[in-house]
TrEMBL record:
Pfam families with a match to the protein in the record: HTH_17 (PF12728)
Keyword DNA-binding among UniProt keywords: yes
Keyword annotations: DNA-binding
Source superkingdom: Bacteria
Residues of the Helix-turn-helix domain: 34-84
Protein name, as recorded: DNA-binding protein
Gene Ontology MF, one: DNA binding
Organism: Spirosoma sordidisoli
Length: 95
């Protein structure tokens, strides 16, 4: 095992660099249009038929720039999930 020694100044500079890189990675804009596979992953479904049903019923927006390419609007997927979110019956307190 190797031990690496750093002066305080170098250590804090390293920490700041790591934090900055993590912040940049986290703040990257998400793509507006996602593939069918990505849409299924966001929706936590495994069936292409279910994805098609959501599309056909107008529950999620899509774009078809070419005949065999269908892209899904990430925002509409997130909105669909929010519309179908349910609150819990118990708020965690016991009476």
């Amino acid at each position: 095992m190797q031990v690496i020694c750093l002066e305080d100044k170098a250590f804090y500079a390293l920490i700041e660099e790591v934090v900055e890189r993590l912040r940049d990675k986290h703040n990257q804009e998400k793509e507006k249009w996602v593939s069918g596979e990505q849409a299924m992953q966001l929706l936590n479904i495994t069936s292409k038929t279910t994805l098609q049903k959501l599309r056909d019923e107008g529950k999620i927006r899509f774009s078809q720039p070419q005949k065999k390419i269908i892209l899904y609007d990430r925002g509409s997927i997130e909105a669909y999930l929010e519309r179908n979110a349910r609150s819990t019956f118990n708020d965690g307190r016991r009476k």
